[in-house]
Model the fold of this input.
Amino acid sequence: MIRALQASEDNTGASRQDVEPTSQGSEIDLSAQVWEEGEDTDSSKAKAPTYDEPDFMIKALQAAKGKIIDSISGDSSIAEEKIAGAELSEHQSEEVENESSDTDTLPKKPDFMISALQAAKEKNAASIIGNGVEKQTENTPSYPSMFDQAEQTAASIISSFSERFSRSFKAQEKPEYQLPAINLLEEHQQSVLSYSVEELDTMSRTVERVLKDYKVIAEVAGAYPGPIITRFELSLAPGVKVSRVSGLAKDLARAMLVTSVRVVEIIEGTPYIGLEIPNQERELVSFREIISSEQFQQAKSPLTLALGKDVSGQTVVSDLAKMPHLLVAGTTGSGKSVAINTMILSMLYKATPDQVRMIMVDPKMLELSIYEGIPHLLTPVVTDMKEAQNALRWAVAEMERRYKLMSKVGVRNLAGYNQKVEDAAARGETIRDPLFQLIDPLAEGETFPVLSTLPHIVIVIDELADMMMIVGKKVEELIARLAQKARAAGIHLILATQRPSVDVLTGLIKANVPTRISFQVSSRIDSRTILDQGGAEALLGNGDMLFLPSGTSVPTRSHGAFVGDEEVHAVVDYLKSHGGANYIAEITQEEPAVNTTGAENVQDEVDALYDDAVSFVMETGRASISSVQRRFKVGYNRAARMIDQMEEENIVSEPEGNGSRRVLDRE
Done:
């Protein structure tokens, strides 16, 4: 700008003639002519000159325009060349404006333009005074007035730039993720006849009479109809054991003309026991009704699960983050698969892909494949059990990485980590990744990686029994490791099986998955396997379930919400249309990134003993697993790994016919 002013001083300062400027509209028309000294300037012979815009003003305005364009492109050197460049014609000025109008982004509002013009005004006034002109004549062009109008022109240019590029910014901003609308779900309207007061009174008298026939004195203290069953609360006479009533369950069912009667031995907060009798007509619990409830809407956790209604008709919701893992069991037709769908949809209605990501394992290739392609998935729905094993390995590795990261950051769980990252972002700061190791110098333009928030990871396995049959012990160890430690890292398991036998739900898995849901099972033994108590064999099926939260020993009877296939398809189609899947290929790759099982994690310890074991074998000449076991007091697997490693390094031979090995001559 200063160079442009200096270049214009010769032109604007050379003429000291009495010139009257002419104005048309809001523009000033001043001639750029400069009369040479000695030229006849008689007013009778010379017509009134007209002025174009002074050179320095043209250059100042166009340099400012160039500054805007070059700052957008990031090349400040071009702007400097434009400031010192030659005069541009009006046609070139229009081209610059057209070029700037094609720009797609605006770095910030160019306030410097007004400042540059104000500085130009002061500079021009100073240059005139410096050339010996103490004051302007009456007919000299009023430069302050001219610059005031130039400032107005600049302001209009700035306004147009700001408006155009603000629209461009809004168009380029990433649209905010919209959760699915409730109207994607169907509203199931139905009218179900419930028991009248007279019917409830008659049933109460029948219960008392049947118990009295078996010499059990009891009185019905209350009757509470629900959507699926009606509960009668009984007050037992002193000295009557609850076990006597439990043994009469089938006799009560026969007398009440129902399929089954479930005895609740303890009703928390009351001195009564309960008898649960099926209703003649069952109410359908709509999933839309559950997620529209106040309990679900007010829940803050992105892992809130809409389960259904309890026996009194109250909404049942639970937080998977507090469970922190869930075991679901039930025979075919019990409602287990529908319950899995409602749990998944609950999280899809509550959380964005930035909050919750999922890994789904579907051995049956039918139940969960419908969710293929939604943005919440970390990997395509896994149907091959070998890939499922690799996915669990990846989850264990991710768990270990998150623990290291949280330890470096100084937080105790995923919520604390995300809060720390968000607080830093609110202050305009970033946190460098403490796990990043710089091997080579950073390339030009490359920066250190910074931390961002981490999502919860939910692993859904639809049929655990099939996976255990194919992969076996390995899966049990991986699941146990995740169940033991993954809670604080934000990784959660939902395990489902239709065969709750002890070879599927092993003690190692059950000990680390405290929250269970049991639908109808075939026998009391299966009920004890899943719940550690009976009762699930007396359930009605089609969503009737017992919910055993973590930390309690008494399950709650509830009826699961129902969601149809059409509703699931509608939600999935909505999610696909609002964001594509972003898969991580390494999740199902064969080779894991780190050691995963507890047995493999002792490798560091094995390495510490390996050199001693080699020395022992070389000195004694005995290359047997049992000798290494006895010498170093280690287990069979650990000793076998050391011997196998010696074989790979050609220290000992392969097993011979009788299983013995020879120490090889290493010379």
In short: The domain at 287-435+448-585 is CATH 3.40.50.300 (Rossmann fold). The first strand starts at residue 22 and ends at 24. The mean pLDDT is 77. The longest helix spans residues 143-172.
